[in-house]
Specification:
The complex is a heterotrimer of chains A (178), B (167) and C (350). Chain A has a domain of 113 residues: 2-Layer Sandwich (Alpha-Beta Plaits), CATH 3.30.70.3270. In chain A, 22% of the residues lie in helices and 13% in strands. Chain A has six helices and five strands, in the order ααβαββαββαα. Chain A is elongated, with a radius of gyration of 27 Å. In chain B, helix 1 runs antiparallel to helix 2 and helix 2 runs antiparallel to helix 3. By secondary structure, chain B is an all-alpha fold. Chain B has six helices and no strands. Chain C has one domain. Helix content of chain C is 68%, strand content 2%. In chain C, strand 1 and strand 2 form a beta hairpin. The two termini of chain C are 37 Å apart. Classes of the chains: A alpha+beta (178), B mainly alpha (167), C mainly alpha (350). Chains B and C meet through helix 1, helix 2, helix 3 and helix 6 of B and helix 1, helix 5, helix 6 and helix 13 of C.
Chain lengths: 178, 167, 350
């Protein structure tokens, strides 16, 4: 049979010489190898203090976006929920009433918007499906939680901070300052 | 009471209770462990008599090696109190008679020996049990028996290695 | 030993009591940090960083581990032999700690107008005492494994006992060659002889090699950790143990390592002797401190060696272990004994 690669090595089945039977040389050799490793650079990243740099296309936790005036963009059309292959998104729509124009951009908005982060596979299809640029995947990943319920993110967790009232938080959520 | 006496009585009690419990325990593993305790008490007596070498050799050989082998075998055979066969009363009577006779012989032997009569054990003095004196005795007075026994041990050891080498 | 027990000198009694307490707590503390060092060394050799969350550099990790063990539920299996089940870890720990008594941790210090020997008991059979206590260490394992009433535990206990007995033989034989040279069984005398001349390792390299292999086997350390071979016996002889009883077993292993290192340093590497330094030029107390530091340095080196080997070499198979012990080490030790005897005879000019 012809070897697939050049790296194949025939197994040496010669009986061991006296020197090899002593085992001590090979033990010492092995110990030299492990000792050499103690001087190598460690690839560990001490997570909360250090973070790994993300690629620009990284898909992390979702963010519900607002426009420049701080109005929610989402109109609760449900396209994201349809697009979601993991069926992680549920929402309830409500109609905007008089005096709420500064809160919601469109006449219809999401009164309830929930993403189950345990179901979500972070594929980003919701982001692509959204006609209003309302949902984005950010560069943070899901933090741990003590209960399963804690992983169902509601609007309070998903909504981006208000760009005028809380510009710092807004900038941070957009990832502008790092 | 001096501290020596307290130790002596404590060790004697431990040795006797241990020896009794070896016989009385239902569980063989407990018997072995009581035997180990007895050996310890005897080693303590040796130390009181300033025979440190004997004491430690007693522990190494008997408590450390032989008793471990006993335990080994008992554990492998999985003997326990339930597995013990019921002996008939004839057997039990025979056992008591044999044991009693043996004890009588021992007691009368000790009582009749002239050398032991009226003597008390040397406590905390005397250096016959120290390793140097023992070595001197073994290599001067008892050279031939010592060497013969050592050759015996060596041959046993070589025999074990030879048996092991033969695959 | 008996002069201490019998001549009831209160000051001496107190002095020894304090010394015993200090040494026991020191060995416990060192064993505590050896568990931490084990994890750190493992990380070091495997390009990881190891525990570093509890306290600065993870230095409080052993306390966190200990606390965790203490907090765990104490489980005693219903089918086990309760008394022996509890006796097992206790015996393992006691046997491990008993060896401390004869190791000379340093020369003497002068304090409060007294000269204090830094050795609990300078008995004239020190080496034999170590040997005796080591042979008792098997009981903790054997009793614990049997009392658990678990097949795996029993198997591990039997393995451990047979391994310990087999390697004790080679260990004793390699020690005999050393004792032929020193002519004394007292640890202190052996150290003093090495201070005056060279370390024993120069005279007994082969003996030391056999001895260190046997120490590895007696401590149940890799490559001889068959009694706790996880992948064959689940967890080994302490499988049914939980909480602090398990802690005792794990701890006893580290104390064994510590004591084993101390014995090796004392017998073959000059104990508290500092090479190329004339201790008589220093004052007594400074010399003692330097001596303790030197002994500790040697011990730390050996502890590192233990871990280094553990994270390098895979475990032996059981028949390989027995082959090594009976077919290689014992004949080799006998040969070493003969060689030493012949050389001593040749040197003394027949």
């Amino acid at each position: 049979m012809q070897a697939l690669t050049q790296r194949a090595k025939a197994v040496d089945r010669k009986p061991m010489t006296w020197w090899e039977k002593l085992y001590l040389p090979s033990i010492l050799k092995g110990m030299a190898i492990t000792f050499g490793h103690s001087f190598k650079k460690r690839p560990t990243i001490n997570y909360p203090e250090e973070t790994r740099p993300f690629s620009p296309v990284f898909r992390g936790l979702h963010v519900l976006n607002r426009d420049e005036e701080g109005r929610e963009r989402c109109t609760a059309c449900g396209l994201c929920a349809v697009a979601c292959p993991a069926e992680a998104i549920t929402m309830e729509a409500a109609e905007r009433i008089e005096g709420e124009e500064n809160l919601y951009r469109e006449e219809k908005y999401a009164a309830k918007y929930e993403i189950n982060m345990l179901r979500c596979i972070f594929c980003g299809l919701c982001e692509e499906a959204c006609p209003k640029d309302a949902i984005y995947l950010s560069e943070t990943f899901a933090p741990s939680n003590y209960t399963r319920k804690g992983f169902i993110y509601g609007k309070d967790e998903l909504l981006i901070p208000h760009p005028i009232q809380d510009p710092e938080g807004y900038a941070k959520a957009k990832g502008l300052n790092n | 009471m001096s501290i020596t006496e307290i130790l002596f009585w404590f060790l004697s009690a431990l040795a006797l209770v241990g020896a009794l419990m070896v016989v009385l325990s239902r569980n063989p593993v407990h018997s072995v462990l009581w035997l180990v305790a007895t050996f310890f008490a005897i080693s303590g007596h040796y130390i009181l008599m300033n025979a440190q070498f004997l004491a430690i050799v007693n522990i190494i050989v008997y408590a450390g090696a032989i008793m471990v082998l006993f335990l080994f075998v008992i554990m492998l055979m999985n003997l326990n109190s339930e597995a013990e066969p019921r002996k008939s009363w004839m057997m039990q009577l025979a056992g008591v008679l044999a044991g009693g006779c043996f004890m009588m012989v021992l007691v009368s032997l000790v009582r009749q020996t002239a050398e032991l009569g009226g003597k008390t054990a040397l406590v905390k003095e005397g250096n016959i049990g120290l390793i140097k004196q023992l070595g001197m005795k073994l290599f001067s007075e008892y050279t031939v028996p010592f060497e013969i026994s050592s050759v015996l041990f060596l041959s046993a050891m070589v025999g074990a290695v030879v048996i092991g080498k033969k695959d | 030993m008996n002069t201490i027990l019998l001549a009831f000198d209160l000051a001496l009694f107190l002095e020894k009591l304090i010394l015993i307490a200090v040494i026991i707590f020191a060995s416990l503390g060192i064993a505590l940090y050896t568990t931490f060092a084990e994890r750190k060394v493992a990380a070091l050799l495997q390009d990881r960083s190891g525990p570093n969350r509890v306290g600065p550099f993870g230095l409080f990790q052993p306390f966190a581990d200990g606390l965790k063990l203490l907090m765990k539920e104490e489980i005693i299996p219903n089918t086990s032999n309760k008394f022996l089940f509890i006796l097992g870890p206790f015996m393992a720990m006691t046997a491990a700690l008993m060896t401390c008594a004869v190791i000379p941790w340093g020369n003497q210090v002068e304090m409060f107008g007294r000269t204090i020997q830094l050795q609990i008991a300078d008995i004239n059979i020190g080496v034999l005492y170590v040997f005796g206590v080591v042979s008792l260490g098997v009981y903790g394992m054997l009793i614990g494994g049997w009392a658990s009433n678990n097949k795996f535990s029993l198997m591990a206990a039997l393995r451990g006992a047979s391994q310990a007995i087999s390697y004790e033989l080679a260990m004793g034989l390699s020690l005999i060659a050393l004792l032929m040279l020193t002519g004394s069984l007292s640890m202190k005398t052996i150290v003093e002889q090495q201070m005056d001349s060279y370390w024993n390792i120069l005279y007994q390299p082969l003996g030391f090699l056999i001895f260190i292999i046997c120490v590895f086997a007696e401590c149940n350390r890799t490559p001889f950790d068959l009694p706790e071979a996880e992948n064959e016996l689940n967890f080994g002889y302490h499988q049914e143990y939980s909480s602090m009883k398990l802690g005792f077993y794990l701890f006893a292993e580290y104390i064994h390592m510590f004591i084993g290192s101390a014995v090796m340093s004392t017998l073959y590497f000059g104990g508290y002797d500092v090479p190329f330094l004339d201790e008589s030029t220093l004052s007594s107390n400074v010399a003692a401190l330097v001596g303790i530091a030197s002994l500790m340095a040697k011990i730390v080196f050996f502890l590192f060696l233990f871990m280094w080997v553990r994270w390098t070499i895979p475990r032996f198979r059981y028949d390989q272990l027995m082959n090594l012990g009976w077919k290689s080490l014992i004949p080799l030790a006998l040969f070493n004994m003969l060689l030493t005897g012949a050389l001593i005879l040749a040197k003394s000019g027949l």
